[in-house]
Amino acid sequence: MTYNLPDHLLALKQQIGEFVAQEIIPGELELLEMPFNEAAKVLAQKRAIAKSKGLFAPHLPKTHGGLGLSLFEFAFISEILATTPFGHYVLNCQAPDIGNMELMMRYASEDIKNTFLKPLMAGEIRSCFSMTEPSFAGSNPIRMGTTAIIEGDEIVINGHKWFTTAADGASFAIVMAITAPEASAYQRASMILVPATTPGFNLKRNISIMGEAGEGYHSHAEIIYENCKVPLANLIGELGSGFKLAQERLGPGRIHHCMRWIGICERAFDMMCHRAATRALSEDKRLGHQQTIQNWIAESRVEIDASRMMVLAAAEKIDRFGAKEAKNEISGIKFYVAGVLMRVLDRALQTHGALGMTDDLLLSFWYRHERGARIYDGPDEVHKSALARSILKGYGLEVKPG
Amino acid sequence: MTYNLPDHLLALKQQIGEFVAQEIIPGELELLEMPFNEAAKVLAQKRAIAKSKGLFAPHLPKTHGGLGLSLFEFAFISEILATTPFGHYVLNCQAPDIGNMELMMRYASEDIKNTFLKPLMAGEIRSCFSMTEPSFAGSNPIRMGTTAIIEGDEIVINGHKWFTTAADGASFAIVMAITAPEASAYQRASMILVPATTPGFNLKRNISIMGEAGEGYHSHAEIIYENCKVPLANLIGELGSGFKLAQERLGPGRIHHCMRWIGICERAFDMMCHRAATRALSEDKRLGHQQTIQNWIAESRVEIDASRMMVLAAAEKIDRFGAKEAKNEISGIKFYVAGVLMRVLDRALQTHGALGMTDDLLLSFWYRHERGARIYDGPDEVHKSALARSILKGYGLEVKPG
Amino acid sequence: MTYNLPDHLLALKQQIGEFVAQEIIPGELELLEMPFNEAAKVLAQKRAIAKSKGLFAPHLPKTHGGLGLSLFEFAFISEILATTPFGHYVLNCQAPDIGNMELMMRYASEDIKNTFLKPLMAGEIRSCFSMTEPSFAGSNPIRMGTTAIIEGDEIVINGHKWFTTAADGASFAIVMAITAPEASAYQRASMILVPATTPGFNLKRNISIMGEAGEGYHSHAEIIYENCKVPLANLIGELGSGFKLAQERLGPGRIHHCMRWIGICERAFDMMCHRAATRALSEDKRLGHQQTIQNWIAESRVEIDASRMMVLAAAEKIDRFGAKEAKNEISGIKFYVAGVLMRVLDRALQTHGALGMTDDLLLSFWYRHERGARIYDGPDEVHKSALARSILKGYGLEVKPG
Amino acid sequence: MTYNLPDHLLALKQQIGEFVAQEIIPGELELLEMPFNEAAKVLAQKRAIAKSKGLFAPHLPKTHGGLGLSLFEFAFISEILATTPFGHYVLNCQAPDIGNMELMMRYASEDIKNTFLKPLMAGEIRSCFSMTEPSFAGSNPIRMGTTAIIEGDEIVINGHKWFTTAADGASFAIVMAITAPEASAYQRASMILVPATTPGFNLKRNISIMGEAGEGYHSHAEIIYENCKVPLANLIGELGSGFKLAQERLGPGRIHHCMRWIGICERAFDMMCHRAATRALSEDKRLGHQQTIQNWIAESRVEIDASRMMVLAAAEKIDRFGAKEAKNEISGIKFYVAGVLMRVLDRALQTHGALGMTDDLLLSFWYRHERGARIYDGPDEVHKSALARSILKGYGLEVKPG
C-alpha cells in the first residue's frame, strides 16, 4: 500500500533508521549479555544522544517534550526501533512505561503528574504495572484477589501479583485492586499509584523466565502487597474506574506489541535471507537454492506485509475513533501478528541451523522471550473468542465470554 | 484501512450490491444446476437489466461502453460480483474474456478489434485462451509443443492444448504457439487469434473436472489444432511477442482471481457465521457456542481482511506502475489468497456438517472447483519460488527458476 | 512393525492383491463414469469371479460363507480393496451393508435373518441404514425427530431422514426411531427393519453431493417415513436398545472407514510418487527433484505408516476387548486418519497440477467425496472432544458432551 | 498395540518408574537450577542408588555390567527416564556417552577399551563427540575442515569444531577428521580418540545456547584443535572408516533421541491435562471445559501414540536387521517425532499461560533446548529429502542429495 506519508515522517523514519543502525545495533548483543543495571549506563548515554538529535519520546505530545506522533505515525517508527532489543528503551517509549504515561496523562492528578509523570517522561525514573495474579486466569481484569480498602484518607492494599514487568528498580507501580467487591463486575476495581519505597511493597523475586530471572528493566517481578498504605490521592482516575482504565490501557498496549513484533519479524527475515544467500551447502549451492527455504522466505514476506497493513489500519482506526471502536481489529492483530512472529522466528532459526540455537545471534533471545506474545495481554484463545463473539452478535447470537 | 473512496465508487458499490442481491443470488443454485446453455438464456436477460442500469462491463473504458474503473476501483466491485457464481458473467467481466479484452484493446489490429473485440465487449460473443498443454508443466510459457508456421500470408497451427476454459461455444481462441523455435527463450512464441469455425480447430472434449464436464462457458476444453490455418493478420501483437504478452495478460489475470476469491470468502464466511448462530446442538446451545467454531470465525475474518488489503495494495501498484513492477506483490497474493480461500471454504463446509457436502448450498461447488486456485496461472510452489528468488537477488544470490 | 502375520493371511493378501490388480483396477475409471446401475452388471460378474476364487465376503464367519477374518486380519485386506473405488463392493464387504450384517448377525430374529440377512450376505440384495436427520446435529443418536409408535403388533414410523447411503435400490432399511420419548436418554430409541417396498417409505431424492446425485449404491437418499407400518417383529434387538446398538454399530463402522482411508492414501501416494518421478520440468529435471515435492512424499509416507499402526492397534483391541473398551482409540483414529487422508489427497492432487483436477484420474473423485471423512460418523470436533473428555476424567474433571 | 512384553521387562519398567518418581523427579527443578558441577554431586549419589538397585546402564550388555536390553526393550525404559531431565544421566545411558560406548565396544582396540571405555561404562568419566564444524552445514559428515595427518606413529589434528556436547569436563573426545583428502567422499574421514588433556585440545568456550552457556555435562563446547597430537593407536576403527562409523553411530543415536522425546511428550501431556483439569476460569468452569484445550489434548494424545508405535517399529527393525536397513524408518521418526515434540510442548506451555513461560515448571526448559530436536543429527529438511529420495529411487528417479 502506498501510504503517502508526510515529509516530516519520511525524514524522521530515515533519521531513526540511521540512529538505530549507528548507535544501537552495533552493541546490541553485548548489551543483552550484560546484567541490565550495567547495560543501563550505556543506554543512558544513548538516550542523551537521542535527546540531542531530537528523537526522544516520539509517542509524547510536543508539549511534553515528545515528537507528537499519531498512533499511525508511531507505528512506522516503532517498527524500526523493534529491530533491536533496546530500541524502544533508548527512546523512552518502552512498555510498560509508555502505557503508564498515556494513562497518567489522561487520568492522574496534577500532583501525581508533577511528582511521577514528569520524571517518567524525561526518562529519569521507570515504572511498572501490577495487574496479573497467579491465582486468576490473567486475561480477565474482573476476577482478582488484591484488595484496596479506604481508611480515612489512605488506601490499604493487600494482594499477590506477578508478572509485574520491570518492577525491579521501578520508582512506582500502578496497581489494580478491588475497591468495591459488591459493585457490578465492571466497577469493582481501581488503579492506584504505589511508590516502590512504600512499606508493604514487597518484591519477592524476579521470576525466572525462559532461563533468565534478569534484573532491572529486563525482569518480571512477583510482588506481595502487605498492608501497603498510600494516600487516597494516589488513585488514578475515579474510584471504581479500574476496569475502564485497564481497557483503555490494554487496547493501545496490544497494538504497541504488534508494532514491535513487525520490527522483530523484519530483522529476523533479513537474517534469514542473508543466511540463505550466503551459507554454502557445497561448492556451487547455497541454502537459498533449496526450495523449502524459498517457501519460508516467500511465506514470511507475505505474512509480514499482511501484518503491517492490518496494524496500520487498526492504528488509523484508533486514531480516528478510539480504541473501543477498534476492539475487533485489535483482537484480530493481537493473535494474527503473534502467530506470524512465531512462524517467522521459527523459520529464521531453522534456517541458521545450530547457530540459530546459540546466543551468537538475536534469534534465540526472541525465540524464547517472544513466545509470550501468544499469552500476555490476553492469550490467542481469548482474542479469537472475543472477535468471534462480536461477529456472532451481528448474526443474533449472544455468547458469554470464557 | 480507511480507503477514502470517491463518492461515485461508493454509490456504484451500493448499486452493484443491490443488483446482485436482487437479480442474481435468488436463482443462483438453479442456474448452477442447469446445463449452461440453458442458463445462458436467463443470464442474457440479467445482462440486459445490467445494461439498462448502467452497470455493464465495469472494467472497460467509458469509451468502450464500460464504467472506466481503475484496477483498484474494480477490486471493490469484483469482490461483490464474486459472492455469487454468475456475478462476473452477468456484467461481462468474466475470465477468460476480460483478459482477452484487455489484451486485444492494446495489441489487436483495427480489423480484429472491429470483427472480434467489439462484439466481445458487448457480450454478444465469447472467447477463450489456449495456452496450457498436457505434455508440459503448465506454469511456464516458454516450454510448449504447439507450433505456428508462416506460409505466405497464412499461419498454420499444429498442437495439443487443454484447459482452454470456455472454448465450448466460444467464437474464437487466442492461441499461444511457437513461431521461432530457434529464437531466445522469451521470443519463441506468438499469440494468434483463431476463429472457432476454422477447419482444424478440433474441440476434442470438455474435460471432466471434479465430476463435471460442463458445457458452454462452464467448461474446459481439450483442443487439437491440426493444420489450422488463419491469416497472418490474426497475429495479436508482433511476431515473437507471445511470452511478453502472456506476462502482461497473466499479471492482471492473477489479481482478478484474487479479487474474486475474496468475494467467495466473504460469502462463505457469511454462511459459516449464519450457520454457527442458528444451528442448535441442544435446547440452549448453538454451534457458535463451540470454541472451535469461534476460532474458525476469528481466523477467517482476519485472513480475509489481510487478503483484501494486500490485493488492494497490489492493484494500486499495478495502476500506478504496471504489472511488471508489481510482480512480487502479484506472486504473493496469488498463493496467499488462494490458501486463505481453501481454509475459509473448508471451515465453512465443516461448520455445515453433512449439509456442507451437498449441492443444496454453494459451498460444495466452490470447494470442488476453486481447488484449482492453487494450481492455475502458476501453482503455489512456482509463485513462492519466484517471490523468494526475487528477494534473494537483493541479497546477492542468483537462483535459476524451477 | 513386524506383525508376524500367519501364512494363510499372507497368502490371502497376495491373492486379493492380484485379484484387485487384474479384475478391478483396469476398468475402475470407466465403472466410475457409468451410472451405477449399469456398472452393477459388470460388478456382478466380478463378484462371481471373486466367489469362484474363494475371496468373497472376507469379513463374514466361515459358517456364513465368509473367510472368517478377525478385525485385525481384515484390516490388511480392507486396505488393499480400498485402493480402487469398487474393491469392497465386489467382495460384498462395503458399507453400509457390512455394518448391517454385523448388527443383524447378533441381534436379528431368525425370521429376519432368513428373509433378509441371508440374501444380503450372498450379495443378492443391498440394504441401508437410516439414522441421520436434517434437523438435528448428526453426531448424536439421542436427539432425533423420527418416531415409531407401536399399534398392536405393528409399529408405525414417521420421520424425516437424510444421508441414508445407498437407499436407492436397497431392499430394506434399518431405521433408528424414538420409541419411548419419556425414557432416559439412552433408552429412547429402537432399530427397526423396514422393507423398501413398505408403503410410506418415500425416497424423496438422491441428494446431490459434490456435484453428483448418483444412483443405486452410489447415492445418499433423503427419505420421508410417512405412517410407514411394519410388523413389530421387525425390531432389531430389544425395544429401547437403539442407542446401544448404534454404538455397537458405529465403533467398528468407524474403524472400517479408517482401514479404507489407508488404502486410498496408499494409492494416492503411489500416484504422487509416480508423477514426481516422471513429470518433466525441463530436459534433466523431474518434479521429484523439487524439495517441496520431496517434503510431501516424506511427510505422507510417515503419516500413512502412523495411521496404519494405530488402526491395527485399535482393531486388535476391539478383537480382544470389544469396541466399547477401544472407544478412545476409535475416536483417535477417526479424526487422525481422516486428517491424513485429506492431506495426502491434497498433496497428490497438487503434484498432478491441472491433471489432478480432472476425472482422468481417481484423485478428484476421492478429493470430493472423501471430504466427508471429517464429517460422517461424528465430525472431527466431536471425536476430539470425546477423547479429551475421557482423558480429563482421569484427572478428576467431568466435562459434559457437546 | 499390545506388545506382549516379557515379564522381566514389565517388572523393570515398574522398578524404573518407581525409581524415577522417588529419586529423581522430586528434586529435578532444583538440580536444573544448580550449576551442573554442583548438581553432579547429588547425581552421583543417585547413580549409586541406581547401581545398588540393579538399574544402572540398562543399554549395556550384561557382560559389561548392564541390563542387556535390546533397542526395542530399551525404548520402553528410555521413555520413562526422559520424563525428567536427569533420568538418562543417572542411569549412565545419556548422549553422547551412550553413542560413544556403542561405538567403542565395536571398534576400539583392547587398550583403548581398558583405558577409556571401562571407566566410561562405570560412570566414572564422561566423553564427547566432536564432529560438527561452524563453517560447514552440519548434516553432512563428508564436508569437513578438520584434518588429521599421520606423522610416524602419531596423528596430528588441526581444526575447528563446535557443538561438541558435554566436552567441558569430559575425559576424552572422539574426533572426526579428514585423513585422506584425495580419497573418495566416503573414505576421507577417520575417528580418533583425543584425551582432553592433550596439548592443543583447546576448549574455547561453552557456547551460550538459548540463554545458557551451562557447564559440565550441560554444555556444548567450541573447540580448537591446534597441532593436537595423539598416538596412531587412538584411531577408532580403521583409517578412512570415519564416515561409515558416523553412520553407524548416528542411526541409533537418532532413535535414542526419539525415545527420549516421547518421554518428554508424556510428561508435558500429563502437565497439560492436570492444568486443564484444575485451573479455574470461573466458579464452575475449568480450563479443560474449553474446546480448544480439548482439541490440544486429543491431538497430542494421538500424535504421541503414533510416535511411540513408529519408534518401537524402527527399534525392532534395527534389532533385527541393523540400522542401515532401517534408515528410512529412522529418517521418518527423526522429523515426525521432533515435530510432535514441538507441538506438544507448545500446547502444554500455552495451556499454562504465563506460568508456562517461567522456570517454575519444566516446560520452558524443554521448550528452549528441545527446539534443537529439529536441527541436530540432521535437520528435518535433510531427513525428509533423504526419505523421499529413497522412495523415489523405487520409482526410477535418482535424486542427488542436498
Automatic annotation (TrEMBL), chains A, B, C, D:
<keyword id="KW-0285">Flavoprotein</keyword>
<feature type="domain" description="Acyl-CoA oxidase/dehydrogenase middle">
    <location>
        <begin position="128"/>
        <end position="227"/>
    </location>
</feature>
<feature type="domain" description="Acyl-CoA dehydrogenase/oxidase C-terminal">
    <location>
        <begin position="240"/>
        <end position="392"/>
    </location>
</feature>
<comment type="similarity">
    <text>Belongs to the acyl-CoA dehydrogenase family.</text>
</comment>
<keyword id="KW-0560">Oxidoreductase</keyword>
<dbReference type="InterPro" id="IPR009075">
    <property type="entry name" value="AcylCo_DH/oxidase_C"/>
</dbReference>
<dbReference type="InterPro" id="IPR006091">
    <property type="entry name" value="Acyl-CoA_Oxase/DH_mid-dom"/>
</dbReference>
<comment type="subunit">
    <text>Homodimer.</text>
</comment>
<feature type="domain" description="Acyl-CoA dehydrogenase/oxidase N-terminal">
    <location>
        <begin position="10"/>
        <end position="124"/>
    </location>
</feature>
<dbReference type="InterPro" id="IPR046373">
    <property type="entry name" value="Acyl-CoA_Oxase/DH_mid-dom_sf"/>
</dbReference>
<dbReference type="InterPro" id="IPR037069">
    <property type="entry name" value="AcylCoA_DH/ox_N_sf"/>
</dbReference>
<dbReference type="InterPro" id="IPR009100">
    <property type="entry name" value="AcylCoA_DH/oxidase_NM_dom_sf"/>
</dbReference>
<keyword id="KW-0274">FAD</keyword>
<dbReference type="Pfam" id="PF00441">
    <property type="entry name" value="Acyl-CoA_dh_1"/>
</dbReference>
<protein>
    <submittedName>
        <fullName>Acyl-CoA dehydrogenase family protein</fullName>
    </submittedName>
</protein>
<dbReference type="InterPro" id="IPR036250">
    <property type="entry name" value="AcylCo_DH-like_C"/>
</dbReference>
<dbReference type="Pfam" id="PF02771">
    <property type="entry name" value="Acyl-CoA_dh_N"/>
</dbReference>
<dbReference type="InterPro" id="IPR013786">
    <property type="entry name" value="AcylCoA_DH/ox_N"/>
</dbReference>
<dbReference type="Pfam" id="PF02770">
    <property type="entry name" value="Acyl-CoA_dh_M"/>
</dbReference>
<dbReference type="InterPro" id="IPR050741">
    <property type="entry name" value="Acyl-CoA_dehydrogenase"/>
</dbReference>
